Amino acid sequence: MSVAFRRESDEEHREPRFELPIPPGPNLVTAAGPALIAARVAELEAAVDAAPEAEREALARQLRYWHTRAATAEVVALPQDPDEVGIGSRVTFRLGGTERTITITGHDEADAEARIDYAAPLARALIGTGPGDTADFQGRADAITVLSVENR
């Protein structure tokens, strides 16, 4: 019989499962970052214990990612100057006529709305600026006007 018609198991035909990718560079977090990461680890540990065998591998992969992120987290202090944007700053700015407020955080603390990763292009444009400053963004000079900065 031809090998093409033989089927040993489904396991040999599955795609390999790689680990979740770790973002390049240091794992910088705000003062709240370690607690957020620890909460995620605890949540995943409970989920792995309660999950059926078929789901445990995927949850265990996520848990390994979060354990790595917890071990490599580096808490960054707020900028010394209270009017300077840095990691942990809450910034109100105007971009394209629209006013918006965001907080610059570490990668694992970011969400799509109010908290952005310090490595995001918008955050990189804002870091180091202060109220009244303008910054270049998306190839446009002075596209961003910083209105206020809170460092607490």
UniProtKB/TrEMBL annotation:
Residues 1-18 have a biased composition (Basic and acidic residues). It comes from the Bacteria. It holds the Pfam family GreA_GreB. SUPFAM superfamilies: FKBP-like. Residues 82-150 form the Transcription elongation factor GreA/GreB C-terminal domain. One of its GO terms (molecular function) is translation elongation factor activity. GO terms for biological process: DNA-templated transcription elongation; regulation of DNA-templated transcription elongation. Coiled coil: none annotated. Residues 1-22 are annotated as: Disordered. InterPro entries: GreA/GreB_C_sf (IPR036953), Tscrpt_elong_fac_GreA/B_C (IPR001437), Tscrpt_elong_fac_GreA/B_fam (IPR023459). Keywords: Elongation factor, Protein biosynthesis. PANTHER family: TRANSCRIPTION ELONGATION FACTOR GREA. This is Transcription elongation factor. The lineage of its organism: Bacteria, Pseudomonadati, Pseudomonadota, Alphaproteobacteria, Sphingomonadales.
